[in-house]
Amino acid sequence: MGKRLWYLKKAIEIGTVTKRYPFEPTEPPEGSRGKPVIDFTKCIGCGACANVCTPQALRFIDLKEYKRLELFYGRCIFCGMCQEACPVDAIQLTKDFELATDDLNDLYVVIELKSVRCEICNKYFTTKRIILKINDEVRDVIEEIEYTKLCPECRRKESSTKLVGWRALG
């Protein structure tokens, strides 16, 4: 009986310890990770985030004319691998961890980026934003940007044809 009175006395002295969640907001502790947010203006559609996403919360789908990136928060474990893999820093982890919803569709985020066709075989192969990013990054180094509008297969054929031609001339 004495132990119970001691606990009761301590509880009265200390007061309320727990918060009335969800009626009072709760701040997550420092260093905790919440849901990832994608900046659609930065995303180039490379799919690196989907490649490293172990729980497959991120999926990269090739729809020929478009490349679709789908994020389903219901599978996300907030590991941050997608943020680390993104070459353009389009993904940031927030401290937002409250994902409860009545509508499952609220847990989906979708971005669609226009695909580019190969100039030789007319096959869709990458996004327009990737081509623009490559052109911007190598423009200072290379004056004429070759092969950026060719799919990998046609790029191999063209470069090997040029290489054979140069050897024949030399």
Could you please describe the fold and organization of this structure?
The chain has 170 residues and is α+β, with helices and mostly antiparallel strands. The protein has one domain: 2-Layer Sandwich (Alpha-Beta Plaits), CATH 3.30.70. The protein is 31% helix and 19% strand. Strands 2-3-5-6 form a 4-stranded antiparallel sheet. The longest helix is centred in the last third of the chain and has 18 residues, at 152-169. It is elongated, with a radius of gyration of 26 Å. The model has no long low-confidence stretch (mean pLDDT 88).
Jot down its keywords:
170 residues; single chain; two-stranded antiparallel ribbon; alpha+beta; Alpha-Beta Plaits; 5 helices
Low-confidence stretches: none
CATH topology term = Alpha-Beta Plaits
- Proper CATH architecture: 2-Layer Sandwich
Biggest sheet features: 4 strands, antiparallel
Write the topology of this structure.
Elements: H1 2-14, E1 36-38, H2 48-52, E2 58-62, E3 66-72, H3 81-85, E4 91-93, E5 108-117, E6 124-127, H4 128-138, H5 152-169
Antiparallel strand pairs: 1-4, 2-3, 3-5, 5-6
